[in-house]
Amino acid sequence: MTQPYVRLDKDNAAVLLVDHQAGLLSLVRDMNPDSFRNNVLALADLARYFDLPTVLTTSFETGPNGPLMSELKEILPDAPYIARPGQINAWDNEEFLQAVKATGKQQLIIAGIVTEVCVAFPALSALEAGYEVFIVTDASGTFNEYTRDSAWQRMTAAGAQLMTWFGVACELHRDWRNDIEGLGTLFANHIPDYRNLMNSYASLQAMKQR
Amino acid sequence: MTQPYVRLDKDNAAVLLVDHQAGLLSLVRDMNPDSFRNNVLALADLARYFDLPTVLTTSFETGPNGPLMSELKEILPDAPYIARPGQINAWDNEEFLQAVKATGKQQLIIAGIVTEVCVAFPALSALEAGYEVFIVTDASGTFNEYTRDSAWQRMTAAGAQLMTWFGVACELHRDWRNDIEGLGTLFANHIPDYRNLMNSYASLQAMKQR
Amino acid sequence: MTQPYVRLDKDNAAVLLVDHQAGLLSLVRDMNPDSFRNNVLALADLARYFDLPTVLTTSFETGPNGPLMSELKEILPDAPYIARPGQINAWDNEEFLQAVKATGKQQLIIAGIVTEVCVAFPALSALEAGYEVFIVTDASGTFNEYTRDSAWQRMTAAGAQLMTWFGVACELHRDWRNDIEGLGTLFANHIPDYRNLMNSYASLQAMKQR
Amino acid sequence: MTQPYVRLDKDNAAVLLVDHQAGLLSLVRDMNPDSFRNNVLALADLARYFDLPTVLTTSFETGPNGPLMSELKEILPDAPYIARPGQINAWDNEEFLQAVKATGKQQLIIAGIVTEVCVAFPALSALEAGYEVFIVTDASGTFNEYTRDSAWQRMTAAGAQLMTWFGVACELHRDWRNDIEGLGTLFANHIPDYRNLMNSYASLQAMKQR
Amino acid sequence: MTQPYVRLDKDNAAVLLVDHQAGLLSLVRDMNPDSFRNNVLALADLARYFDLPTVLTTSFETGPNGPLMSELKEILPDAPYIARPGQINAWDNEEFLQAVKATGKQQLIIAGIVTEVCVAFPALSALEAGYEVFIVTDASGTFNEYTRDSAWQRMTAAGAQLMTWFGVACELHRDWRNDIEGLGTLFANHIPDYRNLMNSYASLQAMKQR
Amino acid sequence: MTQPYVRLDKDNAAVLLVDHQAGLLSLVRDMNPDSFRNNVLALADLARYFDLPTVLTTSFETGPNGPLMSELKEILPDAPYIARPGQINAWDNEEFLQAVKATGKQQLIIAGIVTEVCVAFPALSALEAGYEVFIVTDASGTFNEYTRDSAWQRMTAAGAQLMTWFGVACELHRDWRNDIEGLGTLFANHIPDYRNLMNSYASLQAMKQR
Amino acid sequence: MTQPYVRLDKDNAAVLLVDHQAGLLSLVRDMNPDSFRNNVLALADLARYFDLPTVLTTSFETGPNGPLMSELKEILPDAPYIARPGQINAWDNEEFLQAVKATGKQQLIIAGIVTEVCVAFPALSALEAGYEVFIVTDASGTFNEYTRDSAWQRMTAAGAQLMTWFGVACELHRDWRNDIEGLGTLFANHIPDYRNLMNSYASLQAMKQR
Amino acid sequence: MTQPYVRLDKDNAAVLLVDHQAGLLSLVRDMNPDSFRNNVLALADLARYFDLPTVLTTSFETGPNGPLMSELKEILPDAPYIARPGQINAWDNEEFLQAVKATGKQQLIIAGIVTEVCVAFPALSALEAGYEVFIVTDASGTFNEYTRDSAWQRMTAAGAQLMTWFGVACELHRDWRNDIEGLGTLFANHIPDYRNLMNSYASLQAMKQR
Question: Which CATH code for domain C13-174?
Answer without folding.
Answer: 3.40.50.850
